[in-house]
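Continuing the series of single-chain predictions for the mutant panel. This is the parent chain; the variants come on the following pages.
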Amino acid sequence: MKKIIVFGGGTGLSCLLSGLKQFPLEVTTVVAVSDNGSSTGILKEELNIPAVGDIGKVLISMANADDEFLSLLGYRFSKDGSLHNHPIRNILLAALIDMKGSLTEATRYMCSLLGIRGTVLPLTEEKVELVGETHPGTDDYFGEVEVSKHIRNIVRLSYDHDIQISQEISEKILSADLIIFSPGSLYTSILPHLIAPQVRKAINETSAPLMYVANLVTQPGETDELSVSQHVDVLNRHLDQRKIDCVIANNGSIDQTTSERYKSLENKDLVLLDKEKLDAMGVTTIADDLIRVDSSGKIRHDELETAFLIFSYLMKKVN
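Parent structure:
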């Protein structure tokens, strides 16, 4: 069975994984833990633990459990009080960190409970904050929320302290047949992995292809007007010796009503696929209509089609 390792965080990663679990693949998912917003940020500060929010989303997307139980894990308390807006999954993970001694072991237990095939690993066990470093003489931006708002003023991303990743993550990178950077917030969900020196070192030591599953829409403040090739360029600048080998990108369109709503309410546009520039960069482009509009009107990746394209590439590329 082919082995893949996926780096990411947030909704984009969860959507991708819900498709990949349908295919005969050994999937390892590494999740950033530097989020500091909403429920995650509150638990992080009050309990002095890594961010658990994206881990929880990933667990639900990969779960093989009944819908009612998954709905319970996703339930958020709506009444005012100390539990307001906390999803059950976050509270459960926080409790398991106390019981099991680490987020890795808490996640491993949840994987067993939810019948998950594959491995889910936090990038680090440490409580960590993302830092957006600015030009000398100006203040840095502290925390993922502030970083996301001020990307244009930031010259370098770092953490508030040197972090350690587990040997298991390095081993999974070295044994992978394919390394994937998922869709999601480019600067706050994907790049946090690449500013960890141990991750870059392991990637440098493997010959497995590097794939980027491109975002469908731009993210205000982070990737306004960035094309697919420009997303790849940002990733390449944060990699060391290796560069992105392959991109899976959308070439489909959306109806005018959805387009205008995204533009007016969220200031988001479809990411432009500029295949000629990707060709010039030596990047293999796999393009298809990957757009699905869910019941709430949100634009999402078509999980099965995206996963099928990944699986097909892997079967053809890796002997």
